[in-house]
Amino acid sequence: MKYNMLNHLAAISLFIVCAACSTMSAVATPATVDSIFNTEEILDENTLETKTLQDWHPVGATRQKLIEINVAQWWPGQDYRIPVRLIVPLEGKAKGFSITGANPYETLIKDARPTDFQAKLLAGGVGIVKTHVKAFRQIPGKRGLEQQMRRVFMKDLNPRYTTLWIWSMTLMRATTAAYAETDYFEKGKVAGSGSSKNGISPAVALINDERFTATCSDHAFAYYSPTRRADREEMAKANAANKAFFEAVKAGDIDLDQKRGKIYQRVMVGSESSMDKMALKAGRSMDEMQTFADRLWSSVCVAENWDRLMERGVDVLFQPGTHDYVAYDVLWGAQNHPQLPVYYKPSGGHSQTPHVAAAKDEQNRDAFLWHHFFGGDPLMKPPASSHKVDKDKLSVRVSFDEGPKPISGRIWWIYDRAPAGSAPFLHAPIPEDQWADMERDPKTGSWTATIPLQKGASRIDFFSNHGHMSNGYKQYLSSPYTRVELSASQPNAQAQQPSEEQLARILKRFPEADTDKDGKLTTREIQKFRQSRQRNRRPAAAAQPTQDGDAKLTETLAGMNARFKKIELELLEWPGELHQKLGKMKKVAFVARPVEKIAGKLPLLISLHGGGQRWWDLSLQEQLAISAPGGPFEKKRGFKKLRGYDLAELAGKGMILLEPNTAGLWDADSLDTMLDYVLENFPEIDEDRVYVMGYSMGGKGTWVWINESADRFAAAAPCGFTIGGSSGDVKKLAKLPIWGMAGGNDGKNTTGVRKMVERLKAAGNVNVKHTEFEGADHSAGTAVFSSVELVDWMLGFSKGK
Q1: pLDDT higher than 90, residue 364
Q2: CATH, range 551-795
Q3: Nearest of 66, 61, 197, 199 to residue 129 by alpha carbon
């Protein structure tokens, strides 16, 4: 596992930071739930133990004071004291201030000469606060402190004992010290800015201290991506890429400077400084480290706290660079959080040389801070990007549907890029000739470009940067970093960013998402719709399930019902108009009802089957035959393949079981559409008692569905699968009862379910159960679909309670 926050000058220190991450929240209100910071400690002026090094005195058009404060008693007996320089206008108080820790110690202790931009802030009544957020070896008296910190940290894995905590706390305590100077500062906006550790720390402060109102963060992480959380599949890809890369270097196929190679070895995803190796050396398990990391990220990552930040009205800008070892998850971030304003410096990052065509006149930080403090000209907002592959060309369109329009556009692209954060990911820059100026469509205002595709390439990544003048400063903003999979057999391959065709399908199904009624969807509209979607469930007359016309199927179904004593198995045929909206789901589903008539509404258990291609290709009659006693599957394997309706028979509960069929991977939107129909047309179902379970591919489908629509279920059982790239947001599932099951010897599925359970518990879910069937491999599905205890447990929960 690797959390790459490493600075190549302080690898281990920054690594622990990355095991952590960015944070926020606090003023006179409590910090976030499970925050790693204590609000009272942040705001307590008495514990600052302020020492005046230089009292207030005039310096040019400013007044300045140099103090030393006690940031915290980091651990018993270890105070952490740091200098802080306060700068206000020569006359009057400063209202709010700009703060950064990116100040060399020798410069900080001398009177400051404001830059031209800082002078403009001061002239507008905004103060400047400077402090010292640096590697410990660069701070007088702090050399050796990192080793002590690591020893204390490994005792109980307390996030307090990380560089991330103390760096962020430094900014928050410096803010307390500034506001303690009531004759010189009054409450106003507080904006942090900087790069690397000085980009991360203000983002963390923004999350955990409500006095902070903005962050402009360069080369800093913003996302809790699968790679950052050490997803095994992603780590395997990175490790394989690293191995191949260094073998090629050894063979002389890749020219690599020895010094740079050592840097890669320290900072790449999967490095020797990775958390798993560090944990093992200290006698800690990876499970313990993962629990620590999950707790930390929920408190420190901007994307994980986005909704609450937006409710506070803060301003955010991240500038990661496309080749950075800290902010390496640019693709995943663009796919999952397109609402976050970003500027990608092409080929930029820690210790990297930007692309030759990168903007030379970019003034993003100044434009951002000026607008934050004084308003005036608005800043650009994140655009939407669409594309189309046509034989040997890729057409790209970027649209700024909200806010001011840009005056320029330039696009970059790179082929077959290595896994995020790996050594080849960092090493191979965007080729110098792979960029182009875009053209503005005078009719739509969109920016377009056509890229000639490289023959034999498997995929292409692209993004564009767009310029705009705001209050006299040149602002640049990027379109989402997009990957398009290319295939000779699929010339119109789907990309991981919505294409124009995908947007059209979304609009057709959900016209209400188009809030401005202009006939097209923006990234922002899609994001808002996903967050606010509320389903209308109108009552409707019951629709009787119909029998499929296949005589052999009818015969097999009759044989099944002859052996069932407690349930009757039926076929439910989806209406043609509905079926068109169900994606790859087959037209007929299985429904099991209790034989005995039961008064009142009945709970509904939805069972999602597993399978894969061979199962998808089976007819319904063949599926039923496989699970029949004495059928071909039982004769071959010695046991029959159990299905959801077998579990319904075993349980003998008064419930309805629905088992839909699919010819592809389960899709949450299609399942939601199906459930809408079922609830509207079967009034005998109790909407407060809807449950879902699945095994293998069905377990993955269950996990994906509850992450999309947790509010629809009273309990769930995702079993026998690995989370993979669909890690989900466990905070959304904190109140949903979940039981995970897997075979004890089922490889990545065993660890996948185990990790899911641990993350759910770490997120505060108190209704989580976990079962591993000792010695069982993937055949543990038989045990899952024999677990009457599981059914009893699920039926004990209701959304109405």
Answers
A1: yes
A2: 3.40.50.1820
A3: 66
